[in-house]
Amino acid sequence: MHTNPQQPPHGYPPPYPQPVIVQKRGGGCLKALLIGVVVLVGLAALGALLGGGPDESGVTTVASAPDEPDEPDEKKKPKQAGIGDVVKDGKFSFKVTKVEKGLSQVGEGFTVSKAQGQYVLIHLTVKNIGDEAQMFHDSSQKLIDAKGRQFDADSGAAVLGLRDSNAFLNNINPGNAVKGILLFDVPKNVKLRAVELHDSVFSDGVTVALTR
User: Fold this and answer.
1) Which of 85, 165, 171, 176 meets the CB 3.0–4.6 Å disulfide criterion with 81?
2) Do the domain assignments include residue 170?
3) Residues 167 and 158 sit within 8 Å (Cβ to Cβ)
4) What is the arithmetic mean of pLDDT over 162-188?
5) Within a domain: residue 69?
């Protein structure tokens, strides 16, 4: 009778299975692992150079572009002086109190002066704020329209037709003030913008707006 060599005799326990030992190639896997580690380290170093480095939590951060500086706030323009405001130039302070326009003539009888266009009267108070007498003359003053054109005062018509003009060669002592009238002959359709006031023909002058 044929017996299976692996079959134990009747009445005996089966033998334990014999372990099969397979010999692994140790060199190839280890080399691949080392190459992978080197590549990862190289990539991490390159990322640190290009975008910063890891922070304390171990997370690599990318450097951001610096914020652009905020633009400085625009300087607020100072409020321009107008009718009723006191302004100063040199040794004089000025206060425009009233504006009249649309006059076709000034004076009476032999002192009448007729405008080429229309007469504009600028009423103002002039005070000497200096330490010595100063001459106030209407020829140093300018009227400015909306187009930027400048008009000279009509001294002759003011002397003849305005009794209280006080704007022709009036010498004002320190601390004193006079009320005067500047007279301008301008076109009928002119749009007034400002009057430029000077303590003399050589001063920088100060501008007073005639419209709000």
Assistant:
1) 85
2) yes
3) yes
4) 92
5) no
Q: Which domain holds residue 36?
A: 26-62
- 56 and 102 both lie in a single domain: no
Q: Which two tokens stand for residue 79?
A: 């409020």
Residues 6+ apart with CB under 8 A from 38: none
Say if residue 45 is in the same domain as residue 141.
Answer: no
What's the CA dihedral at 143, 147, 148, 153 to 10 degrees?
-20
Domain assignment present for 81:
no
Residues 30 and 97 in one domain: no
CB-based contact 199:135 (threshold 8 Å) = no
Tally of domains within the chain: 2
Per-residue model confidence as pLDDT tens digits over 117-168: 999 999 999 999 999 999 999 999 999 999 999 999 999 999 889 988 888 8
pLDDT bracket for residue 70 (50, 70, 90): low
The Cβ-side half-sphere exposure at 30, using a 13 Å CA radius, reads 4
